[in-house]
Design brief:
With 394 residues, the chain is an alpha/beta fold. The protein has three domains: 7-108, no CATH class; 111-211, no CATH class; 220-391, Dna Topoisomerase Vi A Subunit, Chain: A, domain 2 (3-Layer(aba) Sandwich), CATH 3.40.1360.10. The protein has helices spanning 7-19, 22-29, 52-64, 67-70, 100-107, 110-126, 131-136, 138-144, 148-160, 179-182, 185-195, 208-211, 242-248, 261-266, 305-315, 328-333, 354-364, 381-387, and strands spanning 36-39, 75-83, 87-97, 220-225, 237-241, 254-258, 273-277, 296-300, 322-323, 339-340, 372-373. It has a six-stranded mixed beta sheet with strand order 5-4-7-6-8-9. Helix 15 (305-315) links the parallel strand 8 (296-300) and strand 9. Helix 9 crosses helix 11. The chain is flat. The termini are far apart. This is Wadjet protein JetD C-terminal domain-containing protein. It comes from Propionispora vibrioides. Residues 9-193 form the DUF3322 domain. InterPro entries: DUF3322, JetD_C, UCP028408.
Amino acid sequence: MLKWSDAKTIQAELEKRWQSGRILQHVLAQDDLFPLKISLKRPQNSEINTNFSEIFAWIKSLKEKSKQNLGHGYELVEKEIHHRQSGRNVIPTHVVIPTVQDALRLLKKEREAKWFGELTKMIMTEWPILSEWVFEHPIKVLEIGEEWNQIVAVLKWFSGHHRSGLYLRQLDISGIDTKFIEQRKSLFTKLLDIVLPEQAIDKNNTIFELRYGLQMKPIRIRFRLLDPMLLAQGVSDMEIPLSQFAAFSPAVDRVFITENEINGLAFPPVSKSLVVFRLGYGLDVLKFIPWLRDKDVYYWGDIDTHGFAMLNQIRHFLPQTKSLLMNETVLLDHKKLWSDEDKPVVGELTKLTGEEKQLFVSLQDDKWGKGVRLEQERIAFNYLVRDLDGLSVL
């Protein structure tokens, strides 16, 4: 099959510019995108004699779907070439899309472009400060579509109620179920950071409620005291609000962190130690516990790319953290218990030790198979006891 540019190729090139938002940006800014020139992959001089009939059909097909023939779409730009055997020939080298209207008609996106224009007019009338964001994210504007009326209503409420101290479910916004906000926190974070004054935003906080002065359900920390000498009236297993945990400051030298609940409940006795568990990706809350900075901290996670990402995360605010049972030996010793990691972490982690980084990269590169994963709860309990042997197990 001869791989020369055809009408579908031209449309595909335009589609790329549509998906990138570039065409809609032109709709807003009327910049110099159009007339748009697109090079054609065309026959070489050496092919003219051997493929003359195919070349003739190719040119005919391009002309049939051109603006010269249909009255809209692309215009052909041709060049005369000279061949020693076939003489003079005219070959299309480029197409030119004269106007954005021609592009939209080729893409069958005229209705979407009109809808985009109506949406941007509404958004910028209400919030002109969002003009730059709209220009940078035109496809997102279209995807949001009819929800913009609700989004604008939410932005108005926050603009008129700086740091209200209310729970999210208490917000009284006509026609808005507060789940609408909960499900779109990422989008609202971007928009509120633009429309609200600086004093209404706590930019040091990534938690939505705290960032914009809302009340939130208290974060609770689940932990067990591992030293019988530290128990409060015989109580070892507790769950208390984050603020109380921050003020708790128990007489421990070591803190173990593990996600799995059973791991936390079954963790063996260790002198002057406690184990925190069931935090998941909520590890960031530990940055608000000042007394942790002076403790020996151990993190026990899954041996997969996400486990190492969480270890990397905690080291940003507790750099002294050591990994527990997260090494190649443990992984290979439990080969029969491996499972699959669906969406491995991509990119580099900067807070890993050399040995940890080597294992992380090996998992990324599928050294032992695609998406190899060893969940922490599948590790034999005697491995934990063995690794704790030097930590004064009682």
